[in-house]
Amino acid sequence: MVDWAQMRDCRFDVDRVPELLERVERQDEHEAWKELGWRLVLEHDLLSPASFAALPRLVRLAPRSAEARGLAGKILERAAGRHGCDGLLADCADAIREFREVLDGHLRSRPADYLVSFRALLAVEEEYHWANALEGFTDDIIGVDCPHCGVGVTIAIGGFGCYSQVWDGGEEIRRDLRPAAAEELTGAGRWMHEITVRDGQEVLASGIANLFGKAECPRCASVFAVADEYTSANRPVMR
C-alpha cells in the first residue's frame, strides 16, 4: 500500500497524483493525463517519489492506454538520474518486468506509437542513453569525439544522409558512414536491430545498422565505432 502522504510530486504536492490516477483509471481523460504528466516528469527530466509510486498503476493501464505507456516510459528513461528514489525504483521491479512483457507484445502489433514504446523498452532494459537519444532516424544528430585526434564529430543519420561531419575553417567535410551488417552486430545493437526487423520497422532497423556501424573521422581519416564512442561518453554509471 502506497502512503501517498509521503509521496510528493514534481510540484511538491501529495494529493493530486492519486486523484489523477483514479480519474484516468475510471476514464481515459485527456486533461487528467496532461496534468499527471507534468506532475510526474518535470522539465529538465526531474522525477519525484510520486513518479515511482505511480509506476505500477501506469503499467497496469499500459496494455490499453498509449498515455500510460508513454508516461511510464518517460519515467523509466530518467530512472538513472539523480532523483534520490533508488529504494522506490527497486520496489518497482515486478512492475518493470510486467511492463517489458506489455511493451514487447505491443511492439509486435506494429502500433502507431512504435517509437515511443520502443524507447520505453530500451529504458526497461537499462539502455538509458539510447532510450533518450533515438528520435526515429528521420534526421537524427549525435555528437562524438574522434578517439584518435579528439575532434568533435557530428554523426547524422536520416533522410538527408548518413555521414560524419566536421567543419574546418568554415568548410564542411563529410564522410559516409559504414553501416554494420546484421551478422556483425553484437550486444545491444544486435538486440535492437533484431526487434525492429521483426516488427517491420525498416527505417529504425537501417538507422540502428548505421548507429552501430563505423564512421571515418573527416579530420584525421581514422575509423571508429560510432556506438562505442557515444556509449562511453553518455551511458550513465549505475549506483
Q: How many structural domains does the protein architecture include?
A: 2
Oligomer: single chain
Q: Largest sheet, if any? A: 4 strands, antiparallel
Task: List unreliable stretches of 5+ residues.
Answer: none
H/I helix tally: 11
**Mean pLDDT score, rounded?**
95
N-to-C series of helices and strands:
HHHHHHHHEEEEHHEEH
Overall shape: elongated
Spatial order of the strands forming the largest sheet? 1-2-3-4
**How many strand units?**
6
Secondary-structure-derived class: alpha+beta
Residues in helices, as a percent range: 40-55%
Distance between the termini: 27 Å
Strand percentage lies at: 5-15%
Radius of gyration: 20 Å
What does this structure look like?
The protein contains eleven helices and six strands. It is of the alpha+beta class. The protein is elongated. Strands 1-2-3-4 form a four-stranded antiparallel beta sheet, with helices on one face. Strands 5-6 form a two-stranded antiparallel ribbon.
Brief descriptors of the model:
alpha+beta, 2 domains, two-stranded antiparallel sheet, 49% helix, elongated
What's the short version?
The protein has helices at 16-26, 30-40, 49-61, 66-77, 86-91, 93-108, 114-124, 128-133, 187-198, 202-211, 226-234, and strands at 139-145, 152-158, 161-168, 171-176, 214-216, 223-225. By secondary structure, the protein is of the alpha+beta class. The strands form 2 sheets. It has a 4-stranded antiparallel β-sheet, with helices on one face. The chain has a two-stranded antiparallel ribbon with strand order 5-6.
